[in-house]
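Hi Y.,

Following your request, here is the sequence exactly as I used it, all 296 residues.
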Amino acid sequence: MDVPGPVSRRAAAAAATVLLRTARVPRQCWFLPTALLCAYGFFASLRPSEPFLTPYLLGPDKNLKEREEPKPARLLVLKVLWNDFLICYSSRPLLCWSVWWALSTCGYFQVVNYTQGLWEKVMPSRDAAIYNGGVEAVSTLLGAVAVFAVGYIKISWSTWGEMMLSLFSLLIAAAVYIMDTVGNIWVCYASYVVFRIIYMLLITIATFQIAANLSMERYALVFGVNTFIALALQTLLTLIVVDASGLGLEINTQFLIYAGYFALIAVVFLANGAVSIMKKYRKPEDPESSSQVTTS
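Below is the corresponding structure, written out as tokens. Let me know if you'd prefer a different format.
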């Protein structure tokens, strides 16, 4: 038995258009256009093959059942994911870059989402010509150029990576602070461009460093977890700082907090990086004991 296929939405829309064009009725008549729109909605939603689909899939030659049985493979998948999670984040370099990735992405989203409100306060759009869109375009273009220049940076990221993250996070904090405190729109624009360039440069390096410490099968897991943490932190920060149910702070105070947020990231990675470098370059007191440890 032939089962009629679903009616094409495009064909239904075309038919309705033709009828509307050919119908010679006064503009005040609402009945015919309403009827045609209702007919279009009916035929666009009509799926005559669906009643036959379920019995077909439940046929004896198909490996489907009407009641889905519990599958121990799901528990196995969850166990594998948890084991992969523990293995991935037990790597100190990967954990370090992932923490910065999540924290900085949270702060970046906050600044980008609310910078238009700051610019509107510095230079109201009703009083002068504004160039917000152009600044967004220029910052994206220059950020892309900076990303291409990453390949020419020769540095041992395994050794100096945390110190560089601290330095650039401090520059980001300074850019956000200047954008917040200087009441000049052009200074705000320039600070925002610097902010985005540094972030796009560092996020590219962080993504590469995370991927370098992972097998390809674990990319989705790690970047998914990092993104989830970043969005969760952003939601929490929004509820506390921006939302009326929280502190509901004024826009300048918000950006002052964002600058302090990036400064705190810089301090944390500065301390952590200093400890790592000291451990790496500290000479062993007893060469013989050191060689015995290496041999064992």
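Confidence is low (pLDDT under 50) at residues 1-7, 285-296.

Thanks again,
Q.
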